[in-house]
Amino acid sequence: MVFSIESDNLKDFLPETEELDFSHPAVRDKAAELATHAQTEIDFVQAAYEFVRDQINHSWDIQSRRVTRKASEVLTYAEGICYAKSNLLAALLRANGVPTGFCYQRLTLGDEPETGYCIHALNAVYLESHQRWVRLDARGNKEGVDAQFSLEREQLAFPVRTELGEVDYPTIFARPHPKTMNVLANNEDCLQMYAHGLPTEI
After folding, report:
1. What number is the average pLDDT over the span 53-77?
2. 59 and which of 38, 64, 152, 187 could share a cystine (Cβ 3.0–4.6 Å)?
3. Which residue numbers delimit the Transglutaminase-like domain (predicted)?
4. Whether pLDDT at 114 is above 90
5. How close are the terminal C-alpha atoms of the chain, in Å?
6. What is the distance between the alpha carbons of residues 136 and 86, in angstroms, rounded to a whole number?
7. Mean predicted confidence (pLDDT) in 172-191
8. Per-residue confidence at 196, pLDDT binned at 50, 70, 90?
9. How many other C-beta atoms can be found within 10 angstroms of the C-beta atom of residue 111?
10. Is 0.90 topped by the overall pTM?
11. Which CATH code is given to the segment(s) 4-196?
C-alpha cells in the first residue's frame, strides 16, 4: 500500500497528548523497561508491540464493560478495545522517540455486511533504521486472528475484503481520530459501545 502521511515532519508523530500520556509514571516505567532489554530500535518496537498485543486484553474478548482511553488507563487495567490499545502502543513508542501514527480500516462488525460496519484502529511506526513506515496491529490474537511483527510482509489482524465494502484507509494520522476518541470518552459500558456505538467510517 502507498501511504498518505498526514505530515511530512516526523516530529508531529512524537508529542505527548491527553490520550498518549507517556509522562505518566506507569507508562514511562514500562517504556523504559521494554527499552532496557532491547539491543536495537527494531528489538524495542517489536517488544512494545508484542507486549500490547499479548499482555493487554481486548475488552470484547474478555467481555469487559470497562471503557479505557488513555494509555495509562489501558496499562493500569490491562485492557481496552483497539482504539485504546493503539493509544498505549503509540505512547510506549513515542516515550522512547519512535515516531508513531494511527491507521484505520472499515470492517464488518461480524462476518457479513448484514452485521454492520465499524472502524478498526492500528498503528504505523517509522523505523529510522529502515527509513520507512510499517503498520502494526496490536488488537490481540485469537482463533482466526494472527497479527505479527514483520519487516518482510505486513501481517495485520484482519484482511480487508473490498468486495464486502470493507476499506483499508491509506492515511497515517499523527493523532488518534476524533471519532474514535469521542466514542471512548462518551460511553461507560464497553459491551454496549462495541456492539452498537462504534463509528462506521472516518
Report:
1. 98
2. 64
3. 30-138
4. no
5. 18
6. 9
7. 98
8. very high
9. 10
10. yes
11. 3.10.620.30
Domain residue extents for the chain? 4-196
Question: Three-state SS string across the chain, please?
Answer: CCCEECCCCHHHHCCCCCCCCCCCHHHHHHHHHHHHCCCCHHHHHHHHHHHHHHHCEECCCCCCCCCCCCHHHHHHHCEECHHHHHHHHHHHHHHCCCCEEEEEEEEECCCCHHHCEEEEEEEEEEECCCCEEEEECCCCCECCECCECCCCCCECCCCCCHHHCCEECCEEECCCCHHHHHHHHCCCCHHHHHHHCCCCCC
For residue 12 the three cell numbers come to 508531529
Q: Over the chain, what is the mean pLDDT? A: 96
pLDDT interval class at 168 (50, 70, 90): very high
Alpha-carbon span 141 to 139, nearest angstrom? 7
How many residues would you count in the chain? 202
- The predicted structure's pLDDT at residue 110: 82
